Amino acid sequence: MKPILLQGHERSITQIKYNREGDLLFSVAKDTVANVWYSVNGERLGTYNGHTGAVWCVDCDWDTKNVLTGSADNSCRLWDCETGKQLALLHTNSAVRTCGFDFSGNIIMFSTDKQMGYQCYLNFFDLRDPQQISDNQPYLSIPCSEQKITSAVWGPLGEFVIAGHENGEFNQFSAKSGEVLKKAKEHTKQINDIQTSLDLTMFISASKDNTAKLFDCTSLDHIKTFKTERPVNSAAISPIMDHVVMGGGQEAMEVTTTSTRIGKFEARFFHAAYEEEFGRVKGHFGPINCVAFHPDGKSYSSGGEDGYVRIHYFDPQYFDFELEA
Hints:
GO molecular function: RNA binding; translation initiation factor activity
Subunit structure: Component of the eukaryotic translation initiation factor 3 (eIF-3) complex, which is composed of 13 subunits: EIF3A, EIF3B, EIF3C, EIF3D, EIF3E, EIF3F, EIF3G, EIF3H, EIF3I, EIF3J, EIF3K, EIF3L and EIF3M.
Number of domains: 1
Main location: cytoplasm
Family: Belongs to the eIF-3 subunit I family.
Low-confidence stretches: none
Subcellular location: Cytoplasm
């Protein structure tokens, strides 16, 4: 089947996210706009307008009521998913790099960059308390002085946040006390992306050290490693198969010096248990910045440096495929 091409951004895609049912796909890019699409046919449902800088991250809550975006314009914004109305605007001292709703949708977290003399902070707001929003005062703010956070996700039950840092380290921060519950360092370079499995028991990390790794969410035990020849920008775990998909390529600034063929801009599929690569999907004219599986596991999407989001539906053979060990 031909992939569905979503053309709604003028600059490179920074993150894509499905809602829980998978009928909507949110995309953000370096062009100030957050888009929402129907994932089944690629029709654009609408945009969330208001940011004045590159939008780095997007998340949507459990019942697809609210959408959260974080941007380089030093703000994190909460939107009404249906109407596109801005519900809250949280100002920060530096760019917002990652954001997310916890399981209940009541608590949001976002991390800010270390820049312009400001530290990197991980902030927590409770949306049930309008006072926190109006005063712009998080109930918990964790300073990360050593290494800035480059990616973060909520752990199971909303008890902690798993953060990946510039130096390849993971920290589990408690959402109640703010203390570091566990640490792990399996990567040698910056962690570009963290995505959890559907049941939140595992997460996969994509790193500049050319690998993606599978971890246990609670214990941070390292389970599997998937190796490539290029930096990995993003990786996702299939909800129904023992598969992971990875996207990457070289740094965006080095792309012009290589041809697309050598540039390796394919999405790559690995078997989660055997760590074997079994498939590649071409298509993007530049590095892939983010990948995501549809919650039903029957399709996946990738967003690239070329500003396109591509939705690929798997052929029937994919579901019968067995890797011979």
